[in-house]
Amino acid sequence: MTRGSIYSLLALGYTMVYGIVQLINFAHGEIYMIGAFSSLIATVVFSALGLSGFALFFLVLCYGSIIAMLYGYSLERLAYRPLRNSPRLSLLISAVGMSIFLQNFVLLTQTPNFLPFPRILPQAWNVLGISGLFNSVQVIIFIVSSAVMIVLALLVKYTQLGKAMRACSQDLIMAQLTGVDVNRVIIITFLIGSISATIGSVLVSQYTGQINFYMGFLVGIKAFVAAVLGGIGSITGAVLGSYILGFTESFGAGYLASEYEDVYAFVFLIVFLIFRPNGILGSKIKEKV
Amino acid sequence: MNDPNLSHSSRSDSSLFTKKEPHLPRQPSAKTLAKRLASVLINASLLLLPALTFIIVRVNTVQNTLEWRLLNVVWFWLLFVFFLLFFEFKPHMAALSKSGRVLRRLRGVYQYRHNILLQIFLIGGAVLLPFIIPFYYVKIITFTLVYAIFALGLNYSVGYGGFLNLGHAMPFAAGAYCFALLNKYSALPVLPGLLCGAIVGLIFGAIVALLTLRLRGDYLAIVTLALGEIGNIVLSNWDSFSNGVRGIAGIAQPKLFFIELTLQQRAIMLYFYAVSILIVGIVVSHRLLCSRFGRAWEAYREDHIAAESMGVHVSWVRLSVFMIGGCYAGVAGVLYASSSAFINPSVSQILISITVLSIVVLGGMGSIPGVILGSIIVILLPEMLRVFELYRMLIFGALLVIMMRYRTQGLIAHTRPQYLKRISKTE
User: Fold this and answer.
1) Please, what is the Cα angle at A151 between A147 and A153, to 5 degrees?
2) CA-based R_g, chain A, Å
3) What's the half-sphere exposure (Cβ side, CA atoms, 13 Å) at B193?
4) B76 min Cα distance to partner chain A (Å)
5) Which residues contact A150 (CB under 8 A, 6 or more apart)?
6) Distance CA B54, CA B72 (A)
């Protein structure tokens, strides 16, 4: 359940970006990692100012999101916008390049080691009078991620911006012709993705208690796997896929060998894509000549 | 069939990215220059602002305090201004196209195949080289050659077929482990090992192709990535098979007709193996590209629907591209295992796949001299300049982005061999 929630927070970012510009944002996992590092800096600063508990948690989230948004913006401007009209292969290579760059940037400017992340949230709650039934971090992860998903779903469905996003994902040129500021919509999509990734990374580091520069890579790939499982481009699909992936991994690690934990997700993806190349909720795309 | 107009398609595609030089007045006034400078500075610093957050501040978790490193800002700005001047105020497109012209002339020399003198000169140089330069460099050059073979393999799927393959390290690791294990348990020498590596690589390439037969584009990229990662995890964890992360040591090196050789002689022997395999690889690659297969691959890359309707067997295109590429990778893996005498699961890391990909992209997708130039730049140069070791991956990443933006076709652009022209000239 915890894993599923985290994957879904990341997968949302992938699937929204993909829906609009048809690009695998390989650097999304790196944004997640950057969110975690900025939040760590913020934690140190704000706890030195004497804050603690939920106020601290909220402020840390805000700071981390702002930094991650800045990175997301620069990423889009530097690596993706100049290539918007070029073939998919070059966009993809540019994304891979950006991912390597950001990883090594953090490695060089911060540290190659694991950093401990201080716990902000309380360890355990009394739920219905029984203490220790749930780890409170897990409960918070679930609550926060559901809230983010609901907000996003409402945003896409009911607001003007959401309408513009849906228009862009159907046909970018047509949306532009009807007066949608495509660049703005794409930027906003990247920003939203960065925020949800940061929330995910802060929650995860509360859960695991440590971060390093490599943390985003594998999680990013798995979140993408989740988005693909659900059928990329669809938000409900991404959430569904994430939970399926989370359960598969947990059960695989629990009942089979735990060192092959990462393998299950990938094998699941490969087998799944052989039989249904467009994902669970993905529609079959007719190609025009 | 070989209409010269058609053969330019890859080049005309790339002209989309080369911006036309902005039409500037002859002598821009100081005011406009200053304005332009200001706007560029503001834009660029806004975009790079977030980078500062990590450059200045670092968390010291032991004392739970922050380290402020304000001095770094100075370095950062110096670097930044340097790059800005380099990119914005040189008419950079002109500079790039000038270097392009030099490279084109080089390619002209390369393509002039009837120049037997040149070929003899090159091969003679390759033969004499290990006896002139120090032993250490022989090893590095062998390593570069191995990567060139490896990258030629990836060039089939990325360059000719247009499939983004992020799991090319899997057949490489398969070849390396196959040879290492056979050598360990049945003392297999290097030459039959190369054959085994080729076969194993072929099989693994076929597996990748069969598993991804229905996928295209991004899905294909992610599945190849996943397959490579599965390979890495299995090799790291399956102790009884691969000896886990400890790896396999003491892999045999070549002998000359059962005569034991010294360390230097063995290195030179491996160098010759690598050179001869690379030459064979280049010839095969070039001949295949000119054949019916090569035309089918390129037709598929340019437009798969049109190719299919013209009768190109689509599944076979994919299978053949991945199988031949896997074969090259397997051979490269055997050479790698033999020359380093020790392997561990790091040969199947995603890092290796990405290094090879950056060789191919940098050199020029689909172009054989480009791939060789790329492996020299990516493998040989960092080995020579050990100082930059820390920054190597950082530069790779930035290079991939910059190449995609300014010179998508790579350092040496791929062009189809043109026959009609030459025939008409001789007539």
Assistant:
1) 115
2) 19
3) 30
4) 11
5) none
6) 10
Weakest mean pLDDT among A74-88, B205-219, B251-265, B294-308: B251-265
Query: What tokens were used for A130?
Result: 């029984």
* Nearest residue, CB atoms, A96 vs list B64, B305, B354: B354
Tokens (6 digits) for A129: 């009078």
Q: Do A97 and B397 touch (CB under 8 A)?
A: yes
**CA of B57: how far to CAs of A20, A109, B330, B367, in Å?**
35, 9, 45, 44
- Say if the Cβ atoms of A103 and B397 lie within 8 Å: yes
- Exposed, middle or buried by CB within 10 Å (0-12, 13-18, 19+), for B194? buried
Q: Give CA separation, B189 vs B93, B262, B350, in Å.
A: 52, 16, 29
Give the one of B47, B162, B400 whose C-beta lies nearest to A96's C-beta: B400
B170 is written with which tokens? 């899997």
Which residue does chain B place closest to A26, by CA atoms?
A: B222
Euclidean distance between CA atoms B290 and B303, whole angstroms: 19
- Does the pLDDT of residue B147 top 70, yes or no? yes
Token pair recorded at residue B389 = 């070791």
Strand (E) positions, A1-123?
Answer: 115-116
pLDDT tens readout for residues B321-380? 999 999 999 999 999 988 887 888 888 888 888 888 888 888 888 888 888 888 888 887
Q: In the predicted model, is pLDDT for residue B54 greater than 60?
A: yes
The tokens 């190659």 sit on which residue? A112
* Residue from A157, A225, A212, A204 nearest A14 by CA: A225
Enumerate the residues of chain B whose CB falls inside 8 A of the CB of residue A105: 51, 54, 394
Residue B342 parent element (H or E): strand B342-343
A81 touches chain B (CB under 8 A): no
- pLDDT at residue B146, rounded to an integer: 92
This prediction's pTM: 0.77
Q: In angstroms, rounded to a whole number, what is the distance separating the alpha carbons of residues A137 and A117?
A: 14
Burial class (CB in 10 A: 0-12, 13-18, 19+), B88: middle
CB contacts < 8 Å between A and B, how many? 167
Instruction: Describe the crossing of helices B263-290 and B292-302 by its angle, rounded to 10 degrees.
Output: 70
Question: Scanning every residue of chain B, which has its alpha carbon at the shortest distance from the alpha carbon of A37?
Answer: B54
Which residues of chain B does A92 touch, with a Cβ-Cβ cutoff of 8 Å? 164, 218, 221
| H-helix or E-strand spanning residue B77 | helix B71-84
C-alpha span between A81 and A183 (Å, rounded): 9
Q: Which two tokens stand for residue A187?
A: 């930027």
Asked if B222's CB is within 8 angstroms of A269's CB, the reply is: yes
Of A215, A234, A217, whose CA–CA distance to A152 is shortest? A234
Please give, rounded to a whole number of angstroms, the shortest distance from the CA of B157 to a CA of chain A. 12
Q: At how many degrees (to 10) do helices B392-406 and A88-109 cross?
A: 150
Segment A155-209, tens digit of pLDDT: 888 888 888 888 887 777 888 888 888 888 888 888 888 888 888 888 888 877 7
